[in-house]
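quick one, two chains, predict together pls
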Amino acid sequence: MRYLILCIYLFITIFLDASPFDGTKDLPVAFQGRFRSLDPAARLWLYDFYHVQHLKKDQLISFKTNDPSALELLWRLHFMGHALIDNAPLFWIHYAVVKDLLGLDIKESRFSYNELNQALSKVNLSHVDPSYIDDVNQLSQSIKNFYAIDNRVTQSNSLLAALIKQKQASGIDKRAISDAIENKFPLSSRLRHAGTTLKMLPSKKHEGEWLSLHALHIKSYDPVSGELAPIGNFTSFSDVHFQGIQVAYDDLSSLATRYFTNDNSLNAEEFQLAINRFANKILTAYQSLEGTAYIEAMGKSLYYPTLNQLKAESLYYQLPLIEISILGYGLALILFLIAFTTKNKNITTFGFIALILAFILHTLVLILRCYILQRPPVSNMFETVVYVPWIAILVGIIMNRISRNEWLLIASSLAALALLILLKLTDVDARLENVQAVLDSQYWLIVHVLMVVGSYGIFIVCGMLGHLYLLICCLNKTESSLTQFMAKCILHTMYIGVALLIPGTILGGVWAAQSWGRFWDWDPKESWAFISACVYVIIIHAYTFRKIYDLGLAIGSIIGLMAISFTWYGVNYILGTGLHSYGFGRGGEIYYFGYLLGETLFLGITTGIYLFFKSPKKYS
Amino acid sequence: MKILSKLYHFLGGIYFTIVLIGSVALFVIAGTIVESQTHSHLYAAKWTYGNPVFALLLWGFFINILFSATRRWPFQVKHVPFLTTHFGLLMVLGGALIKSYVGQQGTMNLIEGSASDRIYEINTHAIFAEKRGESSPRLYTLPSHLTHPLEIADDHDGLQLSLLAYTPHSTQKFATWVKDNFLTVDGWEPIPIKDTSDPVTFDQLQPQITVNPGEGSESWEIYALRSRDAEACVDKLSKNIKMPSLSFIEDKEGSVHIHAFDRHGPLWNQIFTCQNFQSLYAYDDGFGGYAVQVDIPKVAVPNMEIIIAQLSQELNEAVVGNALLAPPLQIFQKSCQSLNIDFVKTFVNFLVQWDEAGGWLFPSSVKLSSDLTPVFQNLDMSQDDIAPACQWTVRLFDQIGPDLQRGDDIMKVLRKRKWPLMASLEEMIAQHNFNAEDRTHQILSLLTQQIFSTASMLPSIEFDLLIDPAKENVRLYSAYLRAYDIHLRSIISPSFATASRVADTSAPNSTFTLETSVVPIGTPLPPEKKLEDNVPLITVQAKRGPIKQTITLAYDRSAAGLKWPILNGQYLLRFQPKYSHIPYRVRLRQARQINYAHSGQPYSYESDLIITDQRNGKSIEKTISMNHVHETHDGYRFYLSNMALANESGVKRVQLVVNHDPAKYWLTYPGAIIMCCGIVLLFSLRPYKK
């Protein structure tokens, strides 16, 4: 694993254009409840305001920078404060209603701090449509967060200096001055409020709490010399490491200030060295912490990420793995279709290779997420939408190896393509985040969720085969050995799916009995798992007892797919009620109903055409 | 027989299976849609999962599976997967049935430190009754669908309860100071509430009665009002009140605002909302009812004797210590010395008499007491430096006095009379920014000072001293004192004010306690769609022997609220969920929420419990958390289901779910495993046989 990451990492760093701050990408930082590497933290930080993880090329001028990376912007704000980009269009607003409400240009999508600050000061919340109050409040909050970026340490140091001068002038002795200052401005509070950016220093006093780099510049009153002096080691790093960091950071901050003010006399090499030295100091110091537990709860603990995990995380955000997988699956699909029309076996092989390559990258996404978060990748909407097509492809490949039929690959790559494109088109939260307390059970996540969500992947392949079956029947106006084969595949996938869905749901009941205190209570998610199971069980029974035939099976697979889609998406986004609230969201209802309508029309039309024009010849 | 055979085959047949599964699926779909529309699981359950038709369908399943299996008799090897699956399914269904009849499931609410062995069944109804003098309470179970009339008779005890009325949803409030239309304070006659229309005019704010709270306090005028805008009402009162007053104002929410005023304005206040109280007193463990109290600071009577004694003391010290006295005091002292009279006593006496007589200057109509007359006769008011000033002051006030008495504004009067130093007076007033209540007083002070500062330029006026020199002298002297701002009020008022303005209710004997009983009031509301939010309200008539009493009780979901006395305090009643005892007593030692670093997102919820087996007294300590339950050897399971702050003190309240499912290990779970195996067998064997 380590070498794999290293190789990919080297590959990327060599080929990508670099900002001098690239050396700080993998430094550990506390950001929104997790310890992650700096580059992802910067991307997410920017995304919160800007809705994209890097600056748009055409807006670089307003941000007064040449580098679009969030990382450099974050460092710039850390050292220079927010005033520099107060007029840059940083804040993204989605809803036109909100823009209108604030008196902003509806055609624009991003607004500057100054614009928004003025607009928000004028808005009267009592007139705001209640459904948008949250959006307005969120906006005010992000304005506040942006404002809080500034370095407060210099200010508080000079305030302290003035206070000390005043006290000294009135003849108070040193010990009393020290006490008075500590009383009024406790050091622990000053450390905690040193800054909101770049929390890279683990506090010695409170385990799990990290402090901003600004804290390194905090000075406190030294009762011996009677002057303000830099404070001693307040981190859980060793004293030697702390001093190293302090010196390197002093160096870095003086050079960085020159860099950001476009000082031409700055020696680029010297600056790069200073950055690298600082990064090295932090990484060396962090080695004593990596992999150790910082919060211990009953039967579980939270651990600081290892350096490799940090590297993997910044890699994960840099690599467009899903996009490349989409291209791979798309290419494979095209090649399979060409191969089918030209009957060229070689093209099939190329298609298969493309599919496998895409599948490897797809797998890498899941592996990286598992490795970084140390849990199975199925605890939010994004992860399930990655996991389900992965299962679909896996099933397709396995069944293709057994039956040597390309249609299985076509069906599964269609399924994967559809889902992954959907994932990119929608705004599903792709971040690597903490898991909700109730889901935090490795064992059950693996057993229940992997099984149930895995069955979705299989049912999607099953549904795709159903679509292909109907299309082919409709085109050929007859059933053939191909359709017969497909019906058999539909049946098999349906069997496997049900064999995962029903036991998975029952095991879910056992988990529910563990954490909610009851086995089954018709919670909407439970109910819809039950309904989907009912649909498939009806189809299987009807087919087994020869009440329906292949055509009915294909139609059933599509109806089943609709039930599954509702269980998966509908319960979370349309019903939005019940205890399975981990992936709840809003939006997309129209498209979903469109999908259901399209599916129904497809069923009606293809079946109608087929039954109406069906040639009398029965298959053997 | 043929029909029976047909029925048998139909019931075990595929069509029946498909119809059953389809109907159940449709039922469940309807249930989820209803639930998402109402956000009420209970509502959905009532119409679908809890519906008898649904239960009938499940029984149909049971029969269908059973018959479909028996139809295959005699069994062959090829039937094994089918039989395994369906046998497992039967076991699961059987387990569910056994649990619903024999098992126990309920919730237990604990706050840190507390213990319990009762588990409450949600959405059930019961009346909890405690009899005075008996340790074990009774529980009268009510049906889950309440209908009235309903009679419950406890033959053993002779208590009869009858349900007179039932409302599915209500809101409960507590009436304290204001009940119906009366202000009720224990020990007072009920005072009718005056409904003030808004905007409030002071005419409506006349005090209803005057109450004397007892020794050491002034009497209160009592206002009992109802107003939509309590604040405006208080504003109005504080501007117009002249006597120490106490106002009880009920606002539109039913909260009662109590304000105490002294002569100078608002002194203290407290609000009693009708949902919760800051403190509650239970008499005789609730059998004697509940009350709220309020401690109102006493408005102390300004004790003149003490003030005068203090003043005398201070003056004595000044005289003994040879301090330099103010010029007016010096001439008074001289007069006293020549007459050989005690200066301090006489001077204080004069101040008191002047204060009692009132007026800016000592009024000519008031007769001086005999001990003062010789002093003033002897007083030398003819000194050149002060005589004209005093004389002109007296003259001026003789002229403007009647106007001021009529209530005219002093500045207007002066302007009308063309006071020559008007400009400088206005300038001084502008600098001082006087408050409204003693503006006239302050302006008069300035005016006097103006006269004194310009007196040297004024001609002397001849007074007819022969008529009554004492009478003229006392007026001149009082003008002289005014120039130095010496008057009983101006000397004592600062200390007097502080004493009464700061309401220090912590000092002993400084407050007066009022008390009133607490009465629950249930108001019916239209029922909510989300059934879980409904608070049913019942009216119950209790009867025992010849005594009858009716009480209205709102549903107490947590069974932690007040129990209400009935039948002369013989019983306490509460309308609450049903509960049962478990053989374990659970004490919550500590509960905690552990968050992710730098975040409010919870990482883990944990509770430390002490679980005592009541049959043998053995205790164990156990920590449970989400995903970590505790199960006793005889199958009682404790789950942590909810955690919240119980109150602002930081004590946590935990909800545990406790269940006891005797069938779980030998029916439900094995059944599920067998069914899963069956499914795998079915699907792995069958397709390849075709």
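Confidence is low (pLDDT under 50) at residues 494-505 of chain B.
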